[in-house]
Amino acid sequence: MRAARLTGPGTLDLVEVPTPEIGPEDVLLAVGAVGACHSDLHILDAPAGAFPTPLTLGHEIAGRVERLGEAVTGWRPGEAAAVYGILGCGQCRACLRGQENRCRTVPLGGIGLSRDGGLADYVAVPASRLLKLGDLDLVQAAPLTDAGLTPYHAIELARPALRPGTCCVVIGIGGLGHMAVQILAATTAVTVIAVDSDAAALDLATRLGARHAVPAGPDTVDRIRALTGPAPDGADVVIDCVGVDATLETARQVVATGGHLSLVGLGGGTLAVRPSVAASIPLEASVRVPFWGTRAELQEVIALAAAGLLHADVRRFPLDEAVRAYQLLRRGEIHGRAVIVL
Ligand code: NAD
Ligand code: ZN
Ligand code: ZN
């Protein structure tokens, strides 16, 4: 079968590999669609040894059941499934509570992170990782598993602060951010302020329900402050889906006293929470560092999509153009989500 594999730092190769074997509790999935996440670029940029190689990338996967391991029940060949990508230990306190994204034993365990992912004709996954999709389109479903799930989880963590009439700033309206705007629109009554450096991303945010669109630039903080009011007021919640120095600084400067900062993006920037008492983040503010989400939350994200309330803005690529899709993503030329369709 074909697979797009990380073979060393910065190198993604389309190669022929054997179709994976499955164990008794696994399912062999015929991959239908895989979202190209910005995290894959971080994986490509990571130093040698940070991730196993060779590694088939792709952690936003939807497909159809091809073959069942002998102990698997509840699935039949041809059925459509989304892959919950996290592989927790299943035994620690967090995993036992269904919070595998907080596993205390396995750091960053995941399909397409610690073992072969979905950028291939087939992927082997434990049956426990599959969720039913019914008749949801696979190309729509793939981005739900991360671009949808991660902001959904971030919004769940922030939910106590997202009272009707409050204000949420979403920074970075790409794959994750454009889903965040829709999840806020569908599940809260907050005013959404979208921030991006790209005009087309801001247009998309406005179409999806953001009340205000603020270009990223030298006056971003002033423009947001004009909407939220001066400190100690401000944004009740800020979800930063970029995570570079500039966006973290914007987030710090616009969050209200008692507000909630959600650091989703992994752009490599630094946020000093309290470099000094005078320069602290606002009093009573909290900072969360969400990671992906839970299996139960993914089921809720799928339900939102099935109800017509969440729709990925998708640009399709065949597998042999996966490398090009990531090049365009790196250049900021993808709007919404690039999805590799098999
Ligand atoms: P993306 O490339 O699809 O979107 C990024 C968006 O940010 C684009 O619209 C871009 O124009 C905008 N942007 C870039 N620099 C900006 C700046 N300085 N100011 C304002 N806007 C800016 O990326 P994505 O796939 O949505 O991922 C976003 C980030 O989230 C990545 O760092 C990714 O690794 C991370 N991520 C984290 C988790 C998690 O569990 N915490 C999960 C998935 C992705
Ligand atoms: Zn991802
Ligand atoms: Zn665990």
Automatic annotation (TrEMBL):
It comes from the Bacteria. InterPro entries: ADH-like_C, ADH-like_N, ADH_Zn_CS, ER, GroES-like_sf, NAD(P)-bd_dom_sf, Zn_alcohol_dh. Belongs to the zinc-containing alcohol dehydrogenase family. Its cofactor is Zn(2+). CDD domains: arabinose_DH_like. PANTHER family: ALCOHOL DEHYDROGENASE-RELATED, L-THREONINE 3-DEHYDROGENASE. Keywords: Metal-binding, Oxidoreductase, Zinc. This is NAD(P)-dependent alcohol dehydrogenase. Residues 8-340 form the Enoyl reductase (ER) domain. Signal peptide: none annotated. SUPFAM superfamilies: GroES-like (SSF50129), NAD(P)-binding Rossmann-fold domains (SSF51735).
